[in-house]
Specification:
Length: 242
C-alpha cells in the first residue's frame, strides 16, 4: 500500500501551557485534498500551525513522507516539503510580486517533482502576471492571497496547507482561486490540507473531510470511502452559505 505523504496520529498540541487539540489522527495522500471544517475557534488554524511547527507539541506524532517531524523546527519542516498559506497571508509589502515569488524559491524535498517557476505560478494565476512589477502593498486582498499561494508553491512543497483561502474575497476572485485549486489538485502530485468554514465550498474540492469541535475530531470522512453527509456536516459546522 502507498504510504501517506502526511499523517497525524493522536496529536495533542496547543499554545504554551494551553492545550487546544486532542487526539487528532488522519492520513493524507499525494494528489488528495483533505478539508478541515468547523466553527470559529475550534482549533482549525491551530491544527495547520501544528503541522507547520508553530505550536507547542504535547503528544502524538506527525509524519511527513515517512519521517517524524513533530519535534522539528519550522524551517526544517518547510525544507522537508510543508508549504503554508496562513490566514494573514504573510507577503512582503515592500517587494514586488516578482521579488516576493523569487525569494520564496526552494529546492523540492522529493526527487522527480515538476518544479515551480515564476512562469508556472503566473500560468496558474494569470492575475499575478498582470501585477508582476507591482509592490505587495499595492495588491488587493485577493491578489495578496494569490501571491501567498504562489510563494508557498515556489517552495516546491509536497503538502500545501491553506487556511481559509477564500475568506473575505470578492466572488470573481473566489472563482479564479477555485479554478487554480482544481488545477493544482488535478496535477496530482501535491497533497492539500484546506481549512474551510463553508461546507459547500469544501465539497467542491473533496469528499475527504474532518470536522473539529473544541479541538477534537467529531466527524471523520478522511478516507472518503463514501460521500459525506452534507446536511449533517452543515449542522455540525453551522455555516452553509458563502
Ligand atoms: N497564536 C496563538 N496564540 C495563542 N492562542 C491561540 C493562537 N492561535 C489560536 N489560539 C487559540 O487557540 C484556540 C483555537 O483557535 P484557532 O484559531 O485554531 O481556531 P479556528 O477554528 O481556526 O478559528 P477561526 O475560524 O476563527 O480561525 C482559540 O482559543 C484561540 O484563542
Amino acid at each position: 500500500m502507498r504510504e501517506s505523504i502526511l499523517s497525524c496520529s493522536q496529536l495533542c498540541s496547543g499554545w504554551g501551557e494551553t492545550q487546544v487539540l486532542s487526539d487528532i489522527s488522519f492520513k493524507l495522500d499525494a494528489g488528495h485534498v483533505l478539508a478541515i471544517l468547523g466553527r470559529n475557534g475550534v482549533g482549525k488554524s491551530t491544527l495547520l500551525s501544528s503541522v507547520v511547527g508553530r505550536t507547542t507539541h504535547k503528544a502524538g506524532t506527525i509524519s511527513l513522507a515517512g519521517r517524524m517531524i513533530e519535534k522539528l523546527p519550522v524551517y526544517e519542516r518547510a525544507k522537508l516539503g510543508i508549504g503554508f498559506v496562513p490566514q494573514e497571508r504573510e507577503i512582503f509589502p515592500s517587494l514586488s510580486v516578482r521579488e516576493n515569488l523569487l525569494v520564496a524559491g526552494k529546492k523540492p524535498a522529493r526527487e522527480g517533482a515538476r518544479l515551480w517557476t515564476l512562469d508556472r505560478v503566473v500560468d496558474l494565476m494569470p492575475r499575478l502576471g498582470e501585477r508582476i512589477n507591482n509592490g505587495g502593498s499595492q495588491l488587493s486582498g485577493g491578489e495578496q492571497q494569490m501571491l501567498s499561494i504562489g510563494r508557498a508553491l515556489m517552495g516546491n512543497p509536497s503538502v500545501l496547507l491553506l487556511d481559509e483561502p477564500m475568506e473575505g474575497l470578492a466572488p470573481v476572485i473566489i472563482e479564479g482561486l477555485i479554478q487554480a485549486l482544481h488545477r493544482l489538485r488535478s496535477e496530482g502530485d501535491l497533497a492539500i490540507l484546506l481549512v474551510e468554514q463553508h461546507v459547500s465550498l469544501a465539497l467542491e474540492f473533496t469528499n475527504r473531510v474532518i470536522v473539529l469541535d473544541r479541538g477534537a475530531i467529531v466527524y471523520d470522512n478522511a478516507s472518503a470511502e463514501e460521500k459525506p453527509d452534507q446536511a449533517r456536516l452543515e449542522a455540525l459546522v453551522g455555516v452553509s452559505e458563502h
